[in-house]
Amino acid sequence: MRGKITVVGLGPGRIELIPLQNWEVLRSGQRIYLRTGKHPAVDGLRERGISFTTLDKYYEESQSFEECYSKLVDKILAEAKEAAVVYGVPGHPLVAEETVNLLKREALERKYEIEIMGAMSFLEVLFTTLGIDPVKGLKVLDGLQLNQQVPSTGVGNVITQVYSSLVASEVKLNLMEYYPDDKQVIVVQAAGVPGLERVVHIPLYELDRLPWVDHLTTVYVPPEEGQEAVSKYPMDSLVNALAALRGPEGCPWDKEQTHRTLKSYLIEEAYEVLEAIDEGDSDKICEELGDVLLQIALHAQIARENEYFDINDVILEITEKMIRRHPHVFGQAKVKNSQEVTSNWEEIKAREKEAKGERQLSILDGIPKSLPALLKAEKIQKKVAKVGFDWPDYRGAWEKVYEELKEVAEVLAIGDMDGVQEELGDVFFAVTNLCRHLSIDSEASLNSTNHKFIKRFQYIEEEVRRQGKTLEMLSLQELDQLWNRSKEEKRQKS
User: Which of 63, 147, 333, 350 has CA atoms 20 to 30 A from the CA of 255?
Assistant: First the structure.
């Protein structure tokens, strides 16, 4: 029957583990192609008189796995065009078999019939060899793609495709990003195959020193103690959605965005979180934090497309930073109060910058240039206060406000408008400093006043509409009377 492909799993190694229905297909007389002859079950097939053709030559003549897999699939499809064929693969056809995934896709496009006949995969015998229960948590990763896949340290991780010392070296380096160098790992060769199975426990740093690593080698990394087995905050769905939005068939607007075009959105979303917090609306806080997270994930997706970093790098970076800067929690350091915590934080931060070759010439280095003016003023004042450049208490800051107001009056009297602008800036700075001494958030204080003004002015607008008039029809004195009435009604309600 032309256009039919039967994909048969050959099991994990022992010939006895090939299912009976698969044996019937193998003995059916159809043309059989095996992805590789380097599998323990292959000799058993020969001994039982089953004829087949191996496709190992494509591995030898290809420059990459992608090229090899493409040639393998093209070969099977070409043969299936003439007559029904059987394609045999190690283990289970749907477990770590990229050629089967490609074959399924191509067969669907060409309207070929494809049947998958399962078998025991290497995982089942690996569970037996290691004595582990996958229900307690397990992640299976491709050793050739660890630069794109991330292990979950709270569960056991099975690393496949560790077929050479070179691959083992890359696997080791990638795993060291998440585990200590001396993390005990288990290396298994030919799991479940009598006479061939080998199991060794070694520290991670020795992974690429084993001389017998081959195509039947798998690495198991046990879970880290004390860590959550499953992430409570999965990011994959959001990351995948953003990748689709910026993909070839995605949203035109999303595809046009860059780090620069998104700058204003990040600021806007952060301020909407602050508004939700001020309102005390938990549901709105949750929603607005989601919008901020969207901006972070979108920036990470843009960086990922340019091969700079991805969301995993962002999370890893901040997690490691939090652990480094809290030695009193994650290390042996002792602190008496939050002031010591802050002091340690700054010291550790300075050491980190020095290690990166970033020389700090001023204690004011590192204050973001794009901060809003009030926030930036407060940051500056807090920095210099740490080295003693500060008033002993609020009284000095209070007197400074009056001093700056007096200087505004002086330059205003002589009509020096450039001077007025400069002196008013000094007033803002002095008022911010007074707020700091009184433990008042200057930004929040001004925002509160803005909100209060809006409410009172909206009261005036409502009263004017109720009178059947417009704002322009009332004098300033009449508007001021309504303003004072709104203040009085507010006092009575409170």
Answer: 147
